[in-house]
Amino acid sequence: MSPEVSRRQVLGTIGMSLGGSAWVSALLRAGIIAENRLFKIGACDWSLHNLGRLSALDVAKEIGLDGVQVSFNRPGEGDDLRRVDVRERYLQKCEALGVEIASLAIIVLNAVPLATSDDAERWLAECIEIMPKLGQKVVLLPFFGPADIAESRELQQQVIVRLKRVAPLAEKAGVILGLETWLSAEDHVRIIDAVGSAAVQVYYDVANSLSRGYDIYREIRWLGRERICEIHCKENKTLLGKGEVDFARVKEALDEIGWSGWLIIEGAIGPGMTLKDSYVANQKFLRSLFPTKS
Fold first, then answer.
1. What are the angstrom distances between the C-alpha of 134 and each of 25, 104, 183, 286?
2. Rounded Cα–Cα distance for residues 215 and 233 (Å)
3. Of 24, 51, 25, 67, nearest to 265 (Cα)?
4. What is the pLDDT of residues 53-91, one digit of tens each?
5. Which of 198, 216, 218, 197 is nearest to 207 (CA)?
6. Which three-class secondary structure state does DSSP give residue 160?
7. CB atoms within 10 A of CB 22
8. What is the pTM of this model?
């Protein structure tokens, strides 16, 4: 009997007899999965209808999420992470609720493009500075709407210039700048290589990339573990597992490259369903595929 057959038999036996966290614990004890290959399930604070608000953590707790992707806003907007007291409240609430800050996101860059705005570059530098104070390693840099760079090599070059200026700050702080755009994996890597910093990686959104006609299962494998900092698990107008993204194949690709980390739910509201009911279903669906502690 081959090792792979034996492995499948063990998985099947354990899976039939156990469920949830007990199933994961059994797999860990059996050596089928490693501690460092577990996943955590979170959601964007804007998807929880609490953009840049501390109250997103309460919503996440109610839904059963492990964490929240928290927005870093314009100065003075929302619960501004530039303020020491706000950061302290976030950390205190995280401890009280048992919910983590998964990562940060500068969503305002969609309206104030990094390619053309000195304000955007300054806000990014400010975000990098405060990330270690919150124990954060990843910040999402989005390029959608007015900030879209997909059809302009000139705008892409301007982004490269600005990233070259801020990347040394990210390297010093030990944090990752995750690019999420309409570009293909190859074009993302072209920009990353031009910047020349390991602190710049791809923030991979499976639904966005699939909607552009990219082979997301190939792209994940091609990018590899070292170029993907975090993943948006997303569907448009339906629940995860009910749309076009084959999350079982996503997991196969991630398993092949040995990637694990935060899976951040975005969108994915079921027809006629509430936010809470949709996200309870979404996180349960992801946990049925990806091994998590909870």
1. 29, 10, 30, 26
2. 16
3. 67
4. 999 999 999 999 999 999 999 999 989 999 999 999 999
5. 216
6. helix
7. 11
8. 0.88
